[in-house]
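From the shared-data thread, chain only:
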Amino acid sequence: MEPSTISGTNLRTAFVLLLVVAVTALFLAVTWPFFKPLLLGALLAGLFHPLYRWITRLLGGRASLGAAVTLLVLLVLGLGPVSAFLGIVLQQALTMSDQAIPWLSKHLGAASTFNVNEWLVQRFPALAKYMPSQEQLVEQVGTAAKTAGAFLVSFASRMTATTAAFVLNLFVMLYAMFFFFRDGHKILERIFYYTPLSDEDETRMLSQLASITRATVKGTLVIGVIQGALAGIAFWVTGIEGAALWGTIMTILSIIPGIGAALVWVPAVIILFVTGQYLTATLLAAWCAAVVGTVDNFLRPVLVGRDAKMPDLLILIGTLGGLFLFGPIGFIVGPIVCGLFLTVWDIYGATFREVLPPVTSFRPPDQDASAMAPREPSDH
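Structure, as tokens:
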């Protein structure tokens, strides 16, 4: 091949690569405002794809009609009840925000038979001069509760369908789900076509993505909802106001393994004891400790099953990091990113197995025996 031909080929290759990078960057800039609804639409389409296949078979294989009917079913069975429940939670948050200080003043104020200040001073005398009075404690706790309720109301208000951004993002997500249901396999084939991975690696990544998504939703969301519902029902039975609100908060906090829901029901039990409701407090503590606190251990193996399992620490870090980075959908996206991180490094290890050194078991170095031996007294 002549030098001029080689030079022309290199120039064309460089121009194509530069063009691809530039146009891709421009495409990402255009689509970035809708990244979250598109990502959520793709995840939901993958999660409910078995439902789409079943409905499509019932409709004689008509893919477009099957995608439309699947979306309609999800809207009727999902969006409607969830919106109604969120309305109840929002109303209870408003009520709790307005009644926090009066309730605390009634049960822990000056007229209360239980004085928090005296109780703490008797047990920790050294803190006596630093302890605020009973009235100051009630006011500070009430202000904190009111602020927390106002934050929940503000957050819920931003997430309601009254905002134009919410409506637009919902439309983009549903519109994307329609095409992901119908043409998802073609989109994935096209994406993998441009990646220099083997078919085995591509299949591994795809199966890992689907498995982690199912495990995250079932192991975090479903179990969290069950824990929140069981604790919320217990709150409602015991007469605690805002049972739906507290159940929702416990559902959110359940992403913290072991102690999430306890961050709500333990203070509730303490308040019931302080206000003299000993039987109610005992029954609530027994129910939450024996049922709500252990339901995760029984349900997770059943729900998650053979799906991808990750260490609890990695799930927690991935969930919290995803929430900070992506917002509410981060509880799914974060663990998926962590799972794909492990998968990619497994692929790396398999690809460069012949270059990498062999894996050896690590043992902590033995402590210097001479350092442990008793020393002879010095002559000086």
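The chain has two domains: 31-184, 196-351.
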